[in-house]
Amino acid sequence: MADRKWTAALTAGMAACVAASVALVVAPAAMAGTAPTPAAPQVAADRGMVSELARTLHINPEQALARLGREAAFARTEDGLRRSLGAGFGGAYLNTDASVLTIAVTGSTAAAKVRAAGAAPVLVARSESALRDAAARLDRRAAQAPREVPGWYPDVRTNTVAVLYRDGGLDAARAWAAASGLDSGALRFEASAEQPRPLIDVVGGNAYYIGSGTRCSVGFAVTGGFVTAGHCGTSGATTTQPSGSFAGSSFPGNDYAWVRVAAGNTPRAQVNRYPGTVSVAGSQAVGVGASVCRSGSTTGWHCGTVNALNSSVTYSQGTVTGLIRTDVCAEPGDSGGSLIAGDQAQGVTSGGSGDCTSGGTTYFQPVNEILQTYGLTLTVTGGTPPTSPGPSTSPGNPGGCGGLPGWSATTAYAPGTNVAYASRRYEATWWSTGAEPSAPGSWAVWADRGAC
Question: How far is CA 133 from CA 155, 182, 229, in A?
């Protein structure tokens, strides 16, 4: 009972904190008449998550709670600015205590829009898309990467692509990167002690097992099964505890898979926080600097922050691209496990360096890409998901219009997807699950394209 009361108090406190943060973020824009004031995001604050964040970040629980509220509000602001600025958007990141959202821009007009939204603009030479394209050029040369280069990623804080190199490998890293044809001004070389490896374990445990005993961790429940890391098993491989089989798997290049479980196994919208559980309500992605927590069957529950998005890392089996880079620790057997921000699913554990005694760097495969690739439906709180992916046919959203599918609260939507809702056509501007098109604040996720 004490835990339930504490969680309820946190949830109420979070709502108040988020409301205050949203007011601070959007008030200037509202006064200028440039944007509507969105409603406060509904964010759940689990006791265990707040406690672990406080321990990891060396702050008290009240500060951790306030941080989660600010991050939820800033995520909405970032999404809206990414959509409205288009090619002028150069990336976004939070400062150390998540009190300031910085938006990189490529021109003064975009900077004015950022100020109006309550964020801090910084002028940069390259847009976010240009940084991604630069990193992609290195991705195409991954097979030729020297052993001294464990990975690379677009670094929005410095507006460069950071290339990691091990001791004695700087010259090799520079030569390899130069062969891609990239301008040297777009590159930054960073000394690293990383020795990335997929976090898989071949010992007993209480997670799920593949074949004769390899152990990995469940990521997130989906209709009919769960998502996990691709390096844990190939398509067709069987699992036990829970029983099932890999219905799809991709590794290297990507590191994702999903397991279809046998009858009698019930997918639940929960993540184990050792002890207790955290509810999963959606999959709204967070940005650089945001706080996140990870769950895995070897080391349990640990938290940290996002260092970079769209990162590439080279394992002995090959290079994986498009990953979330964090300072959260992990160890063998944690592979496939959950990365969550508040109550929003973020990704599944791929691999990393270090351990949970000395710390380290861990990479995660974004969950929304997995859902979209396989057409999966994330299991979320607030109702029973449909038995198969598909549009909603509830009275409030009667099956779509104009030949478009109706919006569904449990379907993962990718940018560019069109749906019908309340007799209007909406186009997805960002990855989302559970973001209702007509709800206040949905301007960051859905663009209203008119009647259908």
Answer: 13, 10, 25
